[in-house]
Amino acid sequence: MNRLLLLLLPLWLFSAAAPAETPEEKGLAIAQEADRRDTGWGDQTADMRMILRNRQGQESIREMRIRTLEVEGDGDKSLIIFDRPRDVKGTAFLSYTHAVKPDDQWLYLPALKRVKRISSRNKSGPFMGSEFAYEDMTSQEVEKYDYKFLREETLDGHKTFVIERYPRYPHSGYTRQIVWLDQEMYQPLKVEFYDRRNTLLKTLTLGGYQQYLDRYWRASRMEMVNHKNGKSTVLEWSNYRFRTGLSDRDFDKNSLKRAR
């Protein structure tokens, strides 16, 4: 008996001395695991339908294509090309997401035949009249935020981690975001966005997830609701394709003008 106690004593002392994981450490670890699971897809293309709804429920619809390139050691590059309606056809949006410095973004307006750079201080503005801000249209790199684990919670039958994240970018339109992350997919099901006054501004819900390449989960529907103006925007995604052979040349600034 005494020998057993002597054997167990060092283990007890080690466990008692080991510091408990803080909510900040746990939140960061969950974000890092989500990032690890969604790394290695290379490039992807998809079709996207944007449905804009005003406070009265009236709708306008835009159709576009999106191409994305995974960049090792930095954020993704993406190109969105508008096809319909006619008044926005040919408009193209190019974004270079960065992990620790301001993103680079450009918008090509065919009516003016010029490329407009989006100011790094204006990323909180609405993207093409939608309820998505320019900063919402970039890849969510782990290094962009500080994190805090809040709790575990069941949302619509899904077990989730609820974490809070705080943008490190000083000109972000948000003070914080609360994310409900599915515990199996490690993908978001819901995100609440709080404005610079720390009041609830928008809620994003995501659903219709499907798995590709036996590993990567992608949502087929995203809805952003603005609680201040009563407007909403739905993004419907389809025709996901991966590893199509895209390269950096497909995402240079000249690609905006030649986008078809």
Provide a short characterization of the protein structure:
The protein is mostly beta strands. Helices cover 14% and strands 43% of the residues.
Task: Characterize the structure shown.
With 260 residues, this protein is mainly beta. The chain has helices at residues 2-17, 23-37, 254-258, and strands at 43-53, 59-69, 77-84, 92-96, 104-109, 114-117, 145-155, 158-167, 176-182, 188-194, 200-207, 210-212, 216-218, 221-226, 232-242. The strands form two sheets. It has a 13-stranded antiparallel β-sheet. The model is unreliable at 3-9 and 11-15 (pLDDT under 50).
Helical run tally: 3
Summarize model confidence as the mean pLDDT: 90
What strand order characterises the main sheet?
6-5-4-3-2-1-15-14-11-10-9-8-7
Topology, number of strands: 15
Number of domains: 1
Which fold name corresponds to the CATH topology?
Answer: outer membrane lipoprotein receptor (LolB), chain A
| CATH classification class | Mainly Beta
Helix content: 10-25%
In the CATH hierarchy, the architecture is Clam
| Major β-sheet profile | 13 strands, antiparallel
Strand content: 35-45%
Order of helices and strands: HHEEEEEEEEEEEEEEEH
CA radius of gyration: 21 Å
Helix/sheet category:
mainly beta
Instruction: Give the N-terminus to C-terminus distance in angstroms.
Output: 79 Å
